[in-house]
Structure formats: structure tokens, C-alpha cells
Write a structure and sequence with these properties.
Distance between the termini: 50 Å
Radius of gyration: 23 Å
Oligomer: single chain
Structural class: alpha+beta
Number of helices: 13
Largest sheet: 10 strands, mixed
Length: 448
């Protein structure tokens, strides 16, 4: 870093790296009306805000309900990058290295309506965390997959935008992650750069001609950043895109290059280290993979279909899981299911259990859940008990399946039996700790 930065700037960088990281959150566009107080907003993402201190987010019911996501402010730049592309129609968007889901959910709220988002993670355990966060966010046009980049690259010219937040040496995370410090060596930088070239090469064919690659890392060195972009330009003929970020945001330009790329440095921006560059693929002959028109499952009962708001959906049933797929995305989703390991397709509506149809947790969290499932407001202590997997009691609530909400934010489902309500919150997502703080600050406004 001393070699990359002028003397005075290097000194300011070192001082900033010794400071504690800033805590920031991003609210869900469709599940919140704003912030409870008047926090300082993240300049490049109007849905993001800085907090004065770190909250006990585990005990915020709205966090589990997907009303907000805890995310470093620098990573929220994906919102501004997508908006800068001035997209005027739905797109196919791939987040190649998506877990745990921060950048994916940022993209979901920035992309045009009806866009198809594929969130991919190669590591199975991390893919399950990604699935959880996508479900909580409540988006309807998102598919979660667990594949390597070569498998996705076989979907020739399928995606309009591919975001590659590639595995890196993690230098930008060193002030808040001791593991990033412990694992760093010069050899790690070389290994990461080689791996990044492999990933980009493997997935390249999946990007349409004239499509956009959003490349990002959370590291500082040039080998994984500017030099990787020079390699793309030399080997694939890419053209850098000027995202026109305002100077007052404090985002530093690339080091020793004359093309637009962007660096978040702790002494100039309030967030962790991040590098971003948008590259346009050259024009060419497009030979996209096309899916066959899908057919709706005619056996799905009207009672099940009534669980979602009116709309144009095709219904599928696989191993007892009933899914409502937007009709205009059905052919594409069918192709993805045929060629990839798909672990979630929005929106799973219900599950067949013998003769019973049990509404799915993802339905309750989604934007398309209808009034066929009544909603009941619960207090804070009941919400924490529910999220911990306990049975709860609902007063003056109808019997049957009921959505429980805290301050207008739906947390999940119960089956109300009258004297008690059976808890249907996913077991693997439950709050394990019982060390509840004395007080919790309201940070998001979600009530109707």
C-alpha cells in the first residue's frame, strides 16, 4: 500500500485502518416505509443508513422478517451501479458468487420490475444461507442455484448482466475480520488472481453480446483489481463503462489506469475496502439458450391458488412442493431447472402433506401472499418466543393457518388451534440464544 499511495495519502489510509468499522443497514424497498429516526443515509444507496453503534440484530424481529439487511455500506454501491446503467426493461441478472445475499438483495431492489435474478453459490452450506436470505427478502423473481462457474457458463448468451463478486485476498476487510489478517500472504494474492481469471473465463459465454459484467472484490492490491480489468480488455475486448459516480461520494478512481474503475478506501469513504468496475462485452452474434414454453399444473386446487394475489402465474409441483412461477419467466426458469442445481424458485407457495396443503414460509414472506391467510399482530416478547421456535397463544385470532407480524412485518406462520398456536417457523432459522437485551431500539418503520 505504501507503494500504491502517495506519502500523505498512505498515512491517512493507515490511520483509517486503525479506526473501528462503521455499522450500516439497508432497508427492504417493499417491506419498509423508512427509518425510525433520522440516520445518516449512505450517499450511493438511498435505502442504506449508518448506525451510531452495532445493534443486537439477532433480537430485532424485523431483521428476521426481511425488513432490513445488515450490510457494509461499500457493498451497497451495486444499487448505484445498476441505476447508472439506466435499464428501461426487465433483464436477466446473474449474481455468480452471491452468498450470503447482501449484493443480491441490493440488486433486486435496484433492477427493473419483472427482472429474473439468479443468485448462485458454489458452496452448499453457504448456498443454504443465501436461500434463507432471499426468502426473507420476499422477492418473487429470484432463483437460487448451487453450481460452479463452468456449469453456468454453458448457458450461452443467457444473461444481460453478470455480477462477479469474486473470491479474493480480503485486504479490504482487515479492520473488521481477524481471519482476513491471519490468512494473508503474498502467495494468497497470486492464488486469488489465478482463481479469478478461471472464474471469469468459465462464465464468460453466459453473458450476452453487449452485456455488462460487474466485477468486484473486497481487496486493495492491483493484481486482483486494475490488472484483472486490463487482462479482460486484452483477452476479451471488453470496454469499461463510466458509471458517473459523483465526486462528493469520495470514491477513489483506479490506481495507475486511465479507464473508469472505482475504489472504496477507508480514508475517503465510510465503509470497508472494495473495488468495482463495469465492463461491456463486445457486440457479436447472439446464440442464446432458450427454454421451452412451460405448462401449468392443472391439478393445483383453486384453494391453493387463492393463497396468492391475482396474477399471471404458472403452477408446478415437485416432490410435494407447490410453486407459483411468473408466466413471463416460466420458460427461462424451466431452462434453469433443466440445466442447473436449483435449490429455490420463488415463490414456493405450499407443501403437500398427505391430504393437507400447508402454506410455505416463503409464501408468508413474499409480496404475493393474499388475504386468504389472515395476519395477526403480536407483541415483542411473543415475537421473540415465536422466532425461538416456541408455541405461542393468539388472542381473538381465527383458527387455521395465520401469519404473525411484529409492527407490520410478517415473521412467518402458525397453525392456530385456539388454546395454542403450533409454530411453523423453519427450525434451522430459529434464534438459539436466550440472552435477550434489556432494550431494543426501533430502527425501521414497517407498520402499515
Amino acid at each position: 500500500m505504501r507503494a500504491l499511495l502517495p506519502g500523505d495519502e498512505y498515512n491517512r489510509f493507515v490511520e483509517a485502518m486503525a479506526e473501528p468499522p462503521r455499522v450500516s443497514i439497508r432497508r427492504n424497498l417493499h417491506k419498509s416505509r423508512g427509518f425510525a429516526s433520522g440516520p445518516e443515509l449512505v450517499p450511493w444507496c438511498p435505502l442504506g443508513a449508518y448506525l451510531d453503534e452495532r445493534e443486537a440484530f439477532t433480537f430485532h424481529p424485523q431483521f428476521h422478517g426481511g425488513a432490513f439487511y445488515v450490510q457494509d455500506a461499500s457493498s451497497m454501491i451495486i444499487h448505484a451501479a445498476i441505476k447508472s446503467l439506466a435499464l428501461d426493461s426487465p433483464v436477466r441478472y446473474l449474481d455468480l458468487c452471491a452468498a450470503p445475499g447482501g449484493k443480491t438483495t441490493t440488486a433486486i431492489d435496484a433492477l427493473p420490475d419483472r427482472s429474473l435474478v439468479v443468485a448462485n453459490e458454489i458452496v452448499g452450506t453457504r448456498a443454504q444461507v443465501l436461500r434463507e436470505n432471499i426468502i426473507k427478502w420476499g422477492a418473487t423473481g429470484c432463483v437460487v442455484t448451487c453450481n460452479d462457474s463452468r456449469t453456468l457458463g454453458a448457458l450461452t448468451h443467457f444473461f444481460d448482466i453478470i455480477a462477479t463478486d469474486v473470491p479474493c485476498s480480503g485486504e479490504g476487510m482487515m479492520r473488521k475480520d481477524e481471519e482476513a489478517v491471519a490468512q494473508w500472504t503474498p502467495a494468497l494474492v497470486e492464488q486469488c488472481a489465478a482463481r479469478q481469471r478461471e472464474i471469469l473465463t468459465a462464465v464468460w459465454d453466459a453473458l450476452k453480446p453487449c452485456g455488462v459484467l460487474l466485477y468486484s472484490t473486497c481487496t486493495f492490491n492491483r493484481q486482483e483489481n486494475e490488472e484483472m480489468m486490463l487482462w479482460l480488455m486484452e483477452n476479451y475486448g471488453t470496454t469499461p463503462i463510466d458509471l458517473k459516480f459523483p465526486e462528493e461520494w469520495g470514491i477513489r478512481h483506479g490506481i495507475d489506469v486511465d479507464f473508469p474503475c472505482y475504489r472504496f478506501m477507508p480514508h475517503t469513504t465510510r465503509g470497508e475496502g472494495l473495488f468495482l468496475c463495469a465492463m461491456r462485452k463486445p457486440d457479436g452474434i447472439s446464440t442464446p439458450r432458450r427454454g421451452k414454453p412451460a405448462r401449468s399444473n392443472a391439478k393445483i386446487a383453486a384453494e391453493t391458488q387463492s393463497l396468492i394475489k391475482p396474477g399471471n402465474y404458472l403452477w408446478s409441483s415437485d416432490k410435494g412442493v407447490i410453486t407459483a412461477i411468473p408466466a413471463d419467466q416460466s420458460a427461462e426458469i424451466a431452462l434453469l431447472r433443466d440445466n442447473l442445481r436449483v435449490i429455490y424458485t420463488a415463490t414456493e407457495v405450499a407443501q403437500e402433506k398427505g391430504r393437507d396443503i400447508v402454506p410455505a414460509h416463503s409464501l408468508a414472506m413474499s409480496q404475493i401472499c393474499s388475504n386468504a391467510i389472515p395476519r395477526v399482530e403480536i407483541d415483542y416478547n411473543t415475537a421473540i418466543a415465536y422466532l425461538g421456535g416456541e408455541s405461542i397463544t393468539l388472542n381473538d385470532a381465527p383458527r387455521g393457518y395465520v401469519a404473525v407480524a411484529y409492527q407490520g412485518c410478517v415473521l412467518g406462520l402458525v397453525k392456530n388451534l385456539g388454546n395454542r398456536a403450533n409454530n411453523l417457523y423453519p427450525k434451522e432459522w430459529r434464534i438459539r440464544s436466550r440472552h435477550i437485551p434489556d432494550s431494543i431500539n426501533q430502527i425501521i418503520v414497517t407498520d402499515d
